[in-house]
Amino acid sequence: MNKKISEIGDRAKSIFKLLVENYVATGEPLGSKSISSKINNQLSPATIRGVLNEINLYGLIKKDHFSAGSIPTDFGLHFYTQAILEPGTLKKNEKKLIDSTSLKDLPEEYEKITNVLNGLSNQASLVINDEKIPKIKKIDFHKIDSQKVIFIIENEDGTTINRLVETKENIDNSDLNIISNFLDRFIALQLPSQIEKNISKFISDTQNQINETTRNLLQNGIKLEKSNKSEKFFVRGLPNLIKNELETDLDSLNELLSEIETGKMATKMIQALKKSKGVQIFIGSNTNLFKNANLSMIFSSYQTKNGLTGAIGVIGPKRIDYQRIVPIVSYMSEIISKKK
Question: What is the pTM of this model?
Answer without folding.
Answer: 0.68
